[in-house]
């Protein structure tokens, strides 16, 4: 009997492990919506602005890396990354996040995403309890999903995760192993955790014996106010695993991120990375290192801040002017995202597909994917870093009209 390609694929996928059925695809696939017309405005992306990439300087850095190391650059090298780069990163986290670290506390990874995955691999057996912010970064959930944890939800407040709610949760679930947080300009809400909460989180980790995964790729992208010390800077007993990345402050295509943690944790993560990819491409890491030697990264970041600040301000102004009172929104001081909360009876996924994309030609990310249990339907994420101010104002006005008409309809 002839079988179609589709039937064949279904039969063969029965052989796949559970993690292939649940993980990355089901959550991340929902992030990238359909096509918009020529007047379309995309608030659904999560990317830095490519016009701000230092491409010529990076090209020089690649040449320098090859000129300096020659053939040796293309041999197998160190799993953890070049020691010079690890030292540069240790210096950087000291300067920008108040963390005391040496090169031995640093593991260079293929983006923050690999770092998250390695930490999940290190800590999570099936059924292990992980506390996550609701909402939280979908890529972390996609990674965690593969290890079959039990998720416990911690609500977000205007100054970061609700630490009182976490404390109550720890009393009833003392076996929580890991608390995952994005403390600076959180993805998807844009919220930043207060210093008091950062300190309390570390105290709780000591009292209840868990690890904190501090994931902070946006921390240098602050457009208003002053930088806060990292949670890791309050860590005295190796409870905090800190992750960051060059994706948002340099270029995501470099696929270069890093972990800062106690040596014992770094050594284990290094072994796990080795079983996964042996090592990151040395050419990339030596080029990044040469870039840092020969350019002022802080100056590059400072130059980007003006563009992003103008875009954030344009978005907040437009939201204030055009959104109906029934729509609440966050007021971030940095990062890439603003989070909208609509009336409870609105399903932002259906709204996107039925009204906002076809009629207003606007895209956003419906909020459901950012919840571990995918049980909240009335939130949505807007990106402002990839859209210019004129488009932001026009796009938010169009979105507000669509939301106003629709929320009136469904209420
Ligand atoms: C909170 C958060 N963590 C980690 C990542 C992973 O980024 P990358 O792997 O490019 O460093 C992202 C990317 O959007 C993110 O938003």
UniProtKB/TrEMBL annotation:
List the cofactors.
pyridoxal 5'-phosphate
The protein's superkingdom reads Bacteria
Which Gene Ontology BP terms does the record give? alpha-amino acid metabolic process
Aminotransferase class I/classII large domain boundaries: 39-399
Record's keyword terms, sorted = Aminotransferase, Pyridoxal phosphate, Transferase
Coiled-coil segments: none
InterPro entries assigned: Aminotransferase_I/II_large (IPR004839), Class-I_PLP-dep_aminotransf (IPR050859), PyrdxlP-dep_Trfase (IPR015424), PyrdxlP-dep_Trfase_major (IPR015421), PyrdxlP-dep_Trfase_small (IPR015422)
GO molecular function term, any single one: transaminase activity
Subunit structure as annotated in this protein's UniProt entry: Homodimer.
Family label: Belongs to the class-I pyridoxal-phosphate-dependent aminotransferase family.
* Protein name per UniProt: Aminotransferase
Species source reads Furfurilactobacillus rossiae DSM 15814
């Amino acid at each position: 009997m002839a079988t179609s390609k589709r039937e064949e694929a279904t039969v063969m996928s029965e052989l796949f492990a559970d993690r292939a059925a649940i993980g990355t695809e089901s959550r991340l696939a929902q992030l990238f919506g359909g096509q918009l017309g020529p007047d379309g405005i995309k608030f659904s992306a999560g990317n830095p602005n490519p016009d701000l990439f230092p491409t010529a300087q990076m090209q020089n850095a690649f040449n320098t890396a090859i000129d300096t190391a020659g053939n040796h650059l293309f041999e197998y090298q160190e799993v953890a990354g070049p020691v010079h780069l690890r030292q540069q990163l240790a210096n950087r986290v000291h300067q920008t996040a108040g963390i005391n670290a040496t090169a031995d506390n640093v593991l260079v990874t293929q983006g923050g995403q690999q770092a998250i995955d390695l930490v999940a691999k290190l800590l999570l057996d099936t059924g292990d309890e992980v506390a996550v912010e609701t909402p939280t970064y979908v890529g972390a959930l996609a990674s965690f999903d593969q290890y079959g944890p039990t998720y416990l939800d911690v609500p977000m407040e205007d100054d970061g995760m609700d630490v009182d709610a976490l404390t109550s949760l720890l009393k009833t679930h003392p076996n929580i192993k890991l608390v995952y947080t994005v403390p600076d300009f959180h993805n998807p809400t844009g919220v930043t955790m207060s210093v008091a909460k950062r300190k309390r989180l570390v105290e709780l980790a000591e009292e209840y014996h868990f690890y904190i995964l501090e994931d902070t790729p946006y921390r240098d992208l602050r457009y208003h106010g002053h930088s806060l010390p990292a949670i890791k800077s309050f860590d005295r007993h190796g409870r905090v695993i800190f992750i960051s990345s060059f994706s948002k402050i340099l270029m995501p295509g470099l696929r270069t991120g890093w972990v800062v943690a106690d040596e014992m944790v770094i050594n284990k993560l290094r072994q796990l990375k080795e079983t996964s990819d042996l090592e990151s491409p040395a050419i990339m890491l030596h080029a990044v290192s040469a870039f840092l030697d020969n350019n002022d990264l802080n100056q590059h970041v400072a130059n980007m801040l003006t563009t992003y600040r103008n875009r954030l301000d344009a978005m907040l102004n437009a939201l204030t002017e055009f959104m109906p009172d029934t729509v609440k929104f966050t007021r971030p001081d940095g990062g890439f995202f603003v989070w909208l909360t609509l009336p409870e009876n609105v399903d932002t996924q259906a709204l996107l597909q039925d009204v906002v994309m076809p009629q207003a030609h606007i895209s956003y990310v419906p909020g459901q994917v950012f919840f571990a249990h995918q049980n909240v339907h009335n939130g949505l994420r807007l990106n402002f870093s990839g859209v210019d101010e004129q488009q932001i104002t026009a796009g938010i006005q169009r979105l507000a009209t669509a939301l106003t008409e629709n929320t009136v309809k469904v209420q």
